[in-house]
Inverse folding.
């Protein structure tokens, strides 16, 4: 009986070239490529996670700022209108100024209430 034919031993080459300066090798370019990969990962994380959080935070901050300034303007305008009505329209009868201003605000509230949209979900209770 003869032995099965043996294959010549194969040599396993390392995944990197033996000479870093050899053609086709990474050579001195691996730091640049590694930095490019890190830069790509950081940009991807920024675009997918950090940027939406920044946009939401800006929207919240600007919304609160607009609401606060709008409240201040509304209070100052209503106080000025009350003084104007008390001094020039109803002199000496501050109750009439309060009544007229109350009617104006109630009418604005009723107008806003009639423009609201209703939700058809069962959790809304309506």
């Amino acid at each position: 009986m003869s032995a099965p034919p043996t294959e010549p031993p194969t040599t396993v080459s390392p995944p990197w070239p033996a000479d870093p300066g050899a053609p086709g090798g990474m050579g001195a370019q691996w730091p640049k490529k590694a930095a490019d990969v890190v830069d790509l990962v950081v940009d991807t994380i920024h675009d997918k996670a950090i940027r939406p959080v920044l946009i939401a935070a800006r929207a919240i901050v600007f919304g609160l700022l607009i609401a606060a300034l709008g409240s201040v303007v509304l209070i100052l305008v209503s106080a000025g209108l009350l003084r104007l009505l008390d001094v020039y329209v109803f002199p000496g009868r501050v109750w009439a100024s309060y009544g007229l201003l109350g009617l104006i605000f109630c009418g604005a509230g009723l107008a806003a209430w009639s423009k609201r949209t209703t939700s058809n979900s069962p959790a809304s209770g309506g």
